[in-house]
Amino acid sequence: MKIGIIGAMDIEVEELISSMDDIKKENISRIDFYEGRLQDKNVVVAKCGVGKVHAAVCTQTMILKYAPDAIINTGVAGSLNSELNIADIVISDGVVQHDFDVSPFGKPVGLISGIDLIKIPCSEELINKLVRAAEILEDTNIAVGTVASGDQFICSKEKKDYIVNNFNALCTEMEGASIGHVCYINDVNFCIVRAMSDKADGTANMDFDSFVKIAVEKSILLINNFLKQI
Ligand code: ADE
């Protein structure tokens, strides 16, 4: 069993990488892939960079080169739900691309051409294992639901409302649905784990850096506990 772990920013994966043993590092398409052991499990960890294209390149490369049995995308996200506050956790049951729109051709907003899906489903088994691993987190709301991705940092009520009204998503970020899309077309199980760093409204860019640190700690704890338990 080998688990692929992808984060968009250094801060989202650097603690995982520094805890790994037997590391082999390889750079492909400007992305460093770290293969080795974490919590005594086989893993490959990469920082993909921000946005859907970086995430897709990283995921496809990871699948072809390292053949992980499952891929988990970890990091932070903007909360779209008033019940989910800074450092609360969302585990995806599916992912949507809120900026995919071929509605001028009569298709529903968000329908992904070629695979004819709006929401790409995650592996039930992974969801259940991640929910169980999340029990280690104290004073943290854990929600399972839709994660919405797009090539935009969401920082306004209008955009936030658009995503909630069209996709009923719990949180928004910039990579998860791209990673899910690539996993789906390669028949690889995947799930997204995101800790809330902001509320995706007009305040989202304020104190972002300090909230990211608090949020990332939670997602790292969860991932380490997941690896311990599998
Ligand atoms: N990642 C963390 N917060 C985000 C936001 N508000 N929009 C997009 N990606 C994010």
Structure description:
By secondary structure, this protein is α/β, with parallel strands linked by helices. The chain has one domain (2-229): Rossmann fold (3-Layer(aba) Sandwich), CATH 3.40.50. The protein is built from six helices and ten strands. It has helices at residues 10-18, 52-66, 124-133, 157-167, 176-185, 208-229, and strands spanning 2-7, 21-28, 31-38, 41-47, 70-79, 89-97, 120-121, 142-149, 171-173, 189-198. It has a five-stranded mixed barrel. A hairpin with a 2-residue loop joins strand 2 and strand 3 (31-38). Helix 1 (10-18) packs across helix 6, helix 2 packs parallel to helix 5 and helix 3 (124-133) crosses helix 6 (208-229). The longest helix has 22 residues, at 208-229. The termini are close together. The model has no long low-confidence stretch (mean pLDDT 97). The structure holds adenine. Adenine is lined by residues 76-78, 153-155, 172-174, 197-198, 200, 204. Adenine binds at residues 76-78, 153-155, 172-174, 197-198, 200, 204.
Q: For the terminal residues, how far apart are their CA atoms?
A: 9 Å
Shape, principal axes of CA atoms: globular
Helix content, binned percent: 25-40%
What is the average per-residue confidence, as pLDDT, rounded to a whole number? 97
What series of H and E elements makes up the topology? EHEEEHEEEHEHEHEH
- The fourth-level CATH homologous superfamily is Nucleoside phosphorylase domain
Low-confidence stretches: none
Main sheet strand line-up: 5-9-8-6-10
Largest sheet features: 5 strands, mixed, barrel
| Estimated radius of gyration | 16 Å
DSSP E strands, number = 10
State the CATH topology: Rossmann fold
Number of helices: 6
Proportion of residues in extended strands: 25-35%
Q: Which molecules other than protein and nucleic acid are bound? A: adenine
Instruction: Compute the number of structural domains.
Output: 1
CATH class: Alpha Beta
At CATH level 2, the architecture is 3-Layer(aba) Sandwich
Class from secondary-structure proportions:
alpha/beta
